[in-house]
Amino acid sequence: MSRRRLITRIGFFALFTVIGWFIFSFILVPVVGVIREIFFTDGTFSVDVIKTLLSSRRVMSSLKNTYIMAICTIVLVNIIGIFQIMVTEYFDIKGTKLLNLAFMTPLVYGGISLVTGYNFVYSSTGLLTRAMVELFPGMNPYWFTGFSGVLFVHAFSMTGNHILFVKTAFRRIDYSTIEASKSLGASDFKAFTRVALPVVMPAIFSATILAMLSSLNSFAAPSVLGGKNFYMINSMIQNLNGIGSRDLAALLSFILAITCIILLTVFRKIEKKRNFLSVSKVTTRMRKVKIKNPVLNVIVHGISYIMVAVYLLPIITIVIYSFAEFDTIVSRAIPTKLTLENYIRVFSRGITLEPFFNSFILSFVAVVMVLIVCVVSSVAIHKFKNKAVTILEYSLLIPWIIPSTMLAVGLISVYSTPNLLVFQQVLLGSFILLPLAYAVTHVPSAMRLMRASLYMINNSHEEAARSLGANPLKTFVKVVFPVIRPTIISVGAITFNGLLSEYTVSALLYSANHVPLGMILRSQESLPDPYMAANTLVYIVVLMVISAITLAATQKYRNIV
User: Residue 252: which domain range?
Assistant: First the structure.
C-alpha cells in the first residue's frame, strides 16, 4: 500500500471517528439523558414525576392546548394554503404578482422575528389594534393574546410548505384533464376540487404533516403571545427549566417526542394505504380561468386582498417604524417624523451590534458542522450498504422525529456537569454548546437534500477516475464535489439564514457571554422600552434583507436541486 493511500485511509478513519463521536455525544446520549432525568433523578428508578405532572393543572393545560392548537392549525393552514394556490395558480385574479409576493413573506422572515413583527401590529399596543380601539372603544385590545393570537400566527405563517411544495406540484398538472372535466359539465370550481386537488394530494399531505409537527413544536408564538395564562408544551418546558423543574421539563419533552413519532407513523401508514394520483407529465400547460359569477368574483378578490394586507402590513409597518423617532414607536399610531437615527445607533455601537456578531459566528460554526457531517455521511450512505452505514443513517435522522426542546433538555442534563465525552468539560454556559445544538437539529433536513443530489452523479465518471489512478479523495474532489456543490451552497446559505434569529434552542442553551439575536428580539417583549423597540425593528429589517438576498442568491442552486 502506498504512503499516500495509507494517509488517505487514516484521514477517512479519523473523520468518521469524529462524526461517530458527534452522533453518540450530541444525539444519542442526550436522548438517554432525558430518560435518565425523568426516571432516575436521584439515581434510583421512580415514576413520581409522572404523578407530579398529572397533578399540575398548568402542565396538563399546556398538553391540552398543544393538541387542540395542532388540530386547529392544520385545518386553517390547509384552508388558507389551498386558497392561496387557487387564487395564484388556478383562477385569474388581478394583482397576482402582489399576491405571490405577499404569500411568500413567511419564507423571508420567520420564527421569533415574524412573531415579533406580527405582535408589533396586532398586539394590544400594536399599530392596527390601537387604531381599531380608537374607532371601536368597546373592542378587546388583548384579542391577540393567548390561543387566538397564537392560532392567527400559525395559520398565516405555516403556509410556506404549500407555497414551496403544493404550488410546484400544481404547476405540473396536465391542463387537458381539467378541460376534459369541464367538457363533461363540471364547473371551474368543481374541476379544481375533483380533478386538480386529488393530483396534488401527496404534496398537500406532506405539507399537512409538516404543519402538524411545526405546530406541536411551536415555541416562539406561545412564548411571545401566550400571555400569563396560555402555555403550550415548549413554552412550558422553558418555564419549568427556568424554575429548576428539569425532571418535569424532561418528561414534557419526552411526551412531545412520543407524540411526534406516533403521528409520523400514523401519517405514513395512511399515506401508504391511500391511492394517490400521480402528477402527470405536462402536455398542456396550466391556464388560468376567469370566475364567471360576478358576486363570487368580488368575494374571492376581496378575500385575496385582505390576506395580502394581513401578510404585508407587518412588514410595511416594521420598515416604516424602523425609521421613526424612538420615542414615538410605542406611543403613537402613526410616526410624525422619519429618521436614520435608529440605524445609526444600532450600527455605530458595539453593544447593539454584538447580538448580530454573536448570531453570525454561532450560525457560521453550526453550518460548517452541518455541511461536514452531512457531506461525508451522505456520500458514505450513498456508496456503501452495510450495518454500520445503516446505523449511521438512522442515527442522523433521530433529530427529525425528536423535538429540538427534548434534545436541548438532554444536552442540559448531560453536559451541566463535567463529562468524559467532552474531556471532563462543562459545556452548559459555554460558547460551543449552542452551535452544536443548532447543527444537531439541522442535520436531518440537510442530509436528505445532500443524498438527493448524489443521485445526479454518473457512476461511470467515478469509475473512469479510479481507472486513471485517482484515489477516493481525488475522485471526490474532481468528480463528486462539482455535482453536489450547488446543493452544498444552497443548504449552507438557507441553514445559516434560518439560524440567525433562532429562538427555540437558544432560549434553553444560550450563554450569557454570547447572547444570540433571537434572545434580544424576545427580550423586547418582556422589557419594552423605546430604544429596545427601535433596535428590534432595525434588527428585523436587516434580517429580512439578509433573507431576501439569500433566497435570491441561491435561487439557481435550488432550481438545480
Answer: 47-321
